[in-house]
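tool=predict chain=A
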Amino acid sequence: MSEDLSLDDELVIHRPEDQLNAMYPLQHYGLNCIDCGAALVLKRGRFGIFYGCTQFRETGCEVTQNCHQNDAKPYGRPASAKTKAARKEVREWVERLLTEKHYPTLPSVYSWLREELGTQDKEFRLSYFDEATCKRVTAAVKHKLGELTRFDREVL
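tool=predict ok
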């Protein structure tokens, strides 16, 4: 068993979907896929539980929705494979801001980004970003780090 997984986490990860639904019987949020409109259902993966498109096996639709591991309550917005890749890139650039000491904490980074992008959105967090927002955030961070390219300038 991995050191970063608790026994409870390991039990959740290895249970079939019908057992997951029995563990979280009230967790039917009526979530729908942003690409194909099909239902998102509770699934398990190597990092825990999440909501995934029911059309994954039939069409390869990769839209997912994050959820809290203790109660399966969804958070953030559903994301396609492209959006997940864009969020990953944002995470890497934001890490650079933190490690290079431009900002001491993640909330201070989000505060700067809100001001930089001119938004007052209360849910301005990575798990809510769509692909377009990810591009704008990445460009703003690159600009702050002095690594903005001519392609990034078009996004800002």
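Confidence is low (pLDDT under 50) at residues 1-14. The first helix runs from residue 7 to 13.
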